[in-house]
Amino acid sequence: MPDVKHYRLGLNQPAASPTARCAIEMAEAINQEAGGEFRLEVFPESRLGPDPKMFADLRAGTLEFFMAGATLGGVAPTSALPLLPFAFTQSKAVFAALDGVLGDRIRSELAAHGLHAFRHCWQNGFHHLTTSARPILTADDLAGLKFRSPGGDIAADFFKALGADAGMVPFSGMYEALKARQFDGQSDPLGVVLSLKLYEVQSYLSLTAHWWSGFTLLANAGAWSALPRAVQEAVEHNAEKFALLQRDDVEKINAAGAEELAHRGMQVSTADTASFRARLGDFYSHWRAKAGPELWRLLESYAGDIGG
């Protein structure tokens, strides 16, 4: 009887979230199809450590699979481009880019660093701002505030351009950091605000849809190549199936999120995002130059005119 390969998948999302639920269902389907040759176990809510540790373990080969959020810019700079503020207005357009040629560029960059990226990324959604100090109605309201945001230079530059500071704390520690007022607010999709119960520690929700983020399912390239082709095929088609299911689930949760969060006691307002855009001219010029004309044209072929 052949040895069973036991692999682990780490992610930061709560166990009850649609992302973790779909990942667990994906693993169950894969395990059933693998017929005893392979077993994948899912560890949600940062049980294997915060994202930087899981990503380091993935690269070192001590973790086989990882659901990566905004942690890839250091090894795949192109992966940061879909996070550019106000670049996209619909998830469908982002997925066209990431399932297509822009995604191919990102996957090629990841492959050069020993990471196998699956083609269909998972949904997180458009980010909005929550705060404890005051509602964000215009860009002026961000002045002097500190936000917990995804890591990366784009987030830091965006908040700096608006007179605010960006800081980082592991996803699993965000609730406690906001409760302790280490940050005035945070940036995330509405489904995350609900799943982490941030409405308990944040009073205001400002609808901004200022950027989109998602998750990339990654495998350590060595661990991936060690799998029999039949097991790889089971992983590949289930990764696609459950990514598409998860996208739909999260889209529905995010769409209903503002009403649900108002019901939970948050004061909900729609921010004047034109006032945000008016201050981002230098920001766009910087990132356009950093990306280079070819990549910028590729991004705009999916997103339309971004500005700058």
What is the element layout, followed by pairings?
Layout: E1 5-10, H1 18-34, E2 38-43, H2 51-60, E3 65-68, H3 91-99, H4 101-111, E4 115-117, E5 122-126, E6 128-131, E7 146-148, H5 153-161, E8 165-167, H6 174-179, E9 185-188, H7 190-195, E10 204-207, E11 212-220, H8 221-225, H9 229-255, H10 257-263, E12 267-270, H11 273-277, H12 281-291, H13 293-303
Parallel strand pairs: 1-2, 1-3, 7-8, 7-9, 10-12
Antiparallel strand pairs: 3-11, 4-11, 5-11, 6-9, 6-10
Give me a quick take on this structure:
This protein has 308 residues and is α/β, with parallel strands linked by helices. It has helices spanning 18-34, 51-60, 91-99, 101-111, 153-161, 174-179, 190-195, 221-225, 229-255, 257-263, 273-277, 281-291, 293-303, and strands at 5-10, 38-43, 65-68, 115-117, 122-126, 128-131, 146-148, 165-167, 185-188, 204-207, 212-220, 267-270. The mean pLDDT is 95.
Key structural traits:
alpha/beta; 18% strand; 308 residues; D-Maltodextrin-Binding Protein, domain 2; six-stranded mixed sheet; 13 helices
